[in-house]
Amino acid sequence: DSGVTQTPKHLITATGQRVTLRCSPRSGDLSVYWYQQSLDQGLQFLIQYYNGEERAKGNILERFSAQQFPDLHSELNLSSLELGDSALYFCASSVDPGQFHNEQFFGPGTRLTVL
Amino acid sequence: AQKVTQAQTEISVVEKEDVTLDCVYETRDTTYYLFWYKQPPSGELVFLIRRNSFDEQNEISGRYSWNFQKSTSSFNFTITASQVVDSAVYFCALSEAGVIDSWGKLQFGAGTQVVVTP
After folding, report:
1. A48 with B105: Cβ contact below 8 A
2. What was the pLDDT predicted at B29?
3. B36 vs A: CB within 8 A
4. How far apart are CA A109 and CA B12, in angstroms?
5. Mutate to test the interface with B, among A68, A103, A105 (most CBs of B within 10 A)
6. Which region holds residue B100: left if phi is over 0, alpha if psi is between -120 and 50, else beta?
7. Which residue of A40, A52, B81, B90 has the fewest C-beta atoms within 10 A of its own C-beta?
8. A79-90, pLDDT tens digit by residue?
């Protein structure tokens, strides 16, 4: 158990809908990262937050957004869902990449299925 | 452009055989970090090792060992005396420290599926 929690574990929804994925980092970790794992794209970095602020952005679609709250949990919002958004979404956390470039600890993932 | 290449898609071995996973990376940064993660069938990603670009010492942890060679931009991973529990997808990843707004971002290779049969 990495200490990173993600809810829900599975999510099945229809095209055009909007969903919210939730992540709680390990105790003491200030950075949260979101990754998407799909068969055709592999593991792709989406976005990173550090202590409530956006730190880095990757291949995140405009239909997707995220935020990190004062208690450090994070939410990833996916809207106008398409079939191609079906994937495993991981959240990871680390202490402070700026100082230590620490390893990231991954949550169990949320498997999103868009029908 | 793909920055991390894992050319082996799948490797099948019989238990107790050694298996080596190749990882080749590409970066212009002088400071970078390399990682290996394991993804067992249950799906979670498990951290195995981190290595920075200034430390070329090989590392051994139990049955796992890593060979980092900057001259060939490779960071290979060997499992000695493989076991069925080693069956998983293994990912190599790169994090480049030269660009501040990319700190911590992991760029993953495509992964290598290891199948260990009894």
Report:
1. yes
2. 87
3. no
4. 27
5. A103
6. alpha
7. A40
8. 999 999 999 999
